[in-house]
Design a protein that fits this description.
about 170 residues; mainly alpha
Length: about 170
């Protein structure tokens, strides 16, 4: 049986088992990096996150009926998809510069009270992904209301019974 050892290659001495490989990532930097990655994926509209659902809703509304898709619609869809690609590339480069490029900077001290809003907002984006139906119904109703503001105008301009006009000296 042939044994391959360090002595066979002319190297002697003990291996230093305590030598570190790579650099240790502090918990704060790890959390901030993961939060940044999550935000990047949401902003760029990659599936299956809420940004993708919004982008898909825009694309499906732009298509409407596939038989009558105009050149402007195709241009809009191309710009929307390229904007997502540009967001991925630019935010990835920014994340690399912020979190991995410089190893000599100090690790920021972040308290839990400062991390809580980030956690809550990322969890809300996850909930929006899972519960996309109610969010999309709300957005559709908002878009319809903006497109046909007659009900809103009537509600604002109609007199409300019991309302007192303080400018005329009413009590």
């Amino acid at each position: 049986m042939i044994a391959v050892t360090r002595e066979l290659y002319g190297e002697e001495g003990d291996l230093d088992d305590s030598a570190e490989v790579g650099i240790a990532v502090p918990v704060t930097m790890g959390f901030l990096g993961l939060a940044f990655i999550g935000c990047t994926l949401i902003i760029s509209g990659l599936p299956p996150l809420s940004g993708f659902i919004a982008k898909f809703a825009l694309l499906s509304a732009a298509l409407g009926s596939p038989s009558a898709v105009s050149t402007a619609t195709w241009a809009f869809m191309t710009i929307l998809i390229l904007a997502g690609l540009a967001a991925v590339v630019s935010l990835t480069r920014a994340g690399i510069q912020a979190f991995w490029a410089s190893s000599e900077r100090t690790v920021p001290r972040v308290r839990l009270i400062e991390l809580a809003p980030v956690i809550v907002l990322l969890l809300l984006c996850g909930v929006q992904t899972i519960q996309a139906g109610p969010v999309m119904r709300y957005m559709r109703a908002t878009a319809q209301s903006l497109h046909a503001p007659d009900d809103y105008i009537r509600g604002v301009l109609s007199p409300v019974s019991g309302r007192v006009d303080h400018r005329k000296g009413g009590a």
